[in-house]
Amino acid sequence: MDCPQDDDDLQVISSKGEELPQPNESFQELLQSLPIRKRITKELLYLYDGFWIDESCLEVVIDFQQNFQPQDTDIILVTAPKSGTTWLKSLVFTITRRSQYTISDKNHPLLTTNPHGLVPFVEYVNPHNHVGTPRLFATHLSYTLLPESIKTSKCKIIYLCRNPRDTFVSMWHFEHKIMSKLDPSWQFPSPKECLEQFCEGVSHFGPFWEQILQYWKLSNERPEKVLFLKYEELKGDIIAQCKKMADFMNCSFSSEEENDGVIKDIAKFCSFEHLSNLEVNKQTEQRSVPQLDNGIFFRKGEIGDWKNLITTSMAEKLDQFVEQKLQGSGLKLN
Ligand code: A3P
């Protein structure tokens, strides 16, 4: 077979014989048409359908929107970054797979795989080849950006949110860690500057309040479709929250399981203390999300750590801002 000689030879021809667009051509056109902002951390974000997304995720998101084929039993876990995604993934994986892998099973996948390696993010990895039942997926996408096929199918969504003060502070440390590794001499912007941009809505998959409100409203309108959880409530009563999740996913705990302490064991197994001390999650060179070391998803796992980074007056301003955005929704995040 001859090698292509010039650009014309590189044209892609479909099985029906018609010419297809060059790979990425329409995507590049789309990018050029979108509003763009440079984050204080220097990344470029594009405003796509009302939400800020970086270029590499956006390409995967569009493919996901167009091609994802849901199954009625699928469970989609949705969070804003740094709201407890890792924890939610481990809990849902353990609850839904408990007949296959008991907590005492020496081969339990969570003992050797980071939760992000078991429940893929749809915006980082195209999840067409996902295996296991029910299929579990995770995303940071707002409801409007989910494929229509998910909205119309019977698959279920679990949404987890976290107090914006702690979410912001967790994000600040996360980005600080990433940036200092990439460029040790780089001066990371102050929490104050970062917080200002966070409140402008210019954060990955933000504005964060729009995402929270979409899933909050939906969980009230269609409680069989969306379960709305809070990080602080998981911390407050993990047993009750695990039961709630299992009921929602149609895999309720039996009274026998309850009496045998299965829920308690799952909670302990997925706790920060247990997961963060597993060798696989201490690894700095092992990766379950592209470019991110497994260990970066575990820092303190506490409520109220914002106090160690931002001032009370900054926190109060953030609270007022959030309260204003949530006004009339019936949702409180403090
Ligand atoms: P902190 O930075 O406040 O410690 P995400 O998983 O969405 O990236 O969120 C990360 C945050 O969740 C981090 O918060 C991390 O420490 C915390 N976290 C990770 N695993 C957890 C667990 N099993 N229980 C509670 N918090 C956890």
From TrEMBL:
> Its Enzyme Commission number?
2.8.2.-
**Keyword Glycoprotein listed:** no
Origin, by domain of life?
Answer: Eukaryota
Pfam families cross-referenced by the UniProt entry: Sulfotransfer_1
The UniProt GO MF terms for this protein read: sulfotransferase activity
Q: Which family does it belong to?
A: Belongs to the sulfotransferase 1 family.
Please identify the protein, giving its name as recorded: Sulfotransferase
